Amino acid sequence: MINVLFVCLGNICRSPMADAVFQAQVKNAGLDDKIKVDSAGTGGWHIGETAHPGTRSTLKKHDIPYDGRARQFKPDDLITFDYVLGMDASNFDHIQRNFDKDAHNAEINLFLHYANEAGTVTETEVPDPYYTGGFEHVFSLVERGGEALLNHIRKQHKL
Ligand code: 4NP
């Protein structure tokens, strides 16, 4: 099994969006028996909560199911997961600070790195919609980011 983890700050807006959209993309590619997807937040304020109403309504509009609950990122995730992807630079820094060089298996990157390389997205970070909104923009970035990530994983694992 290939395990993919998306990490943001609260795990209620951006990483659940990426989690849901990427799960749908994996399923559409017929790879859901090979790729498992999860998300987490670096902060613990929303542990156990459902996704933000903005994320839920945007996903619903696009007919993408999601029933995940927020959980906090832990250093062990770098052992359990093969890909750990920060939604913005501060999430990425947090992941790297918890990075134990002797005990990790994960490829750690900014989530949009793959779409940047593919030339489908110019932004390098997914902006936080928690205070200012912009959930549709997050969805659009996450859709293109997920496509490029899936292409990368398929290439690496010859899927
Ligand atoms: P997220 O957005 O990191 O995309 O889930 C946020 C959610 C909650 C908070 C900040 C960002 N917060 O400060 O509670």
Give a structural overview:
- There is one protein chain.
- This protein is α/β, with parallel strands linked by helices and 159 residues long.
- β1, α1 (14-28) and β2 (35-41) form a beta-alpha-beta unit.
- α1 (14-28) crosses α7.
- Helices cover 44% and strands 14% of the residues.
- 4-nitrophenyl phosphate binds next to loops.
Structural features:
binds 4-nitrophenyl phosphate, globular, four-stranded parallel beta sheet, 159 residues, alpha/beta
Strand content: 5-15%
Number of helices: 7
Structural class: alpha/beta
* Low-confidence runs of at least 5 consecutive residues: none
Q: Summarize model confidence as the mean pLDDT.
A: 96
Query: Radius of gyration, rounded?
Result: 14 Å
What's the order of the H and E elements? EHEHHEHEHHH
Bound molecules: 4-nitrophenyl phosphate
Give the strand line-up of the largest sheet: 2-1-3-4
Q: Quick one: how many beta strands? A: 4
What is the first-to-last residue Cα distance?
12 Å
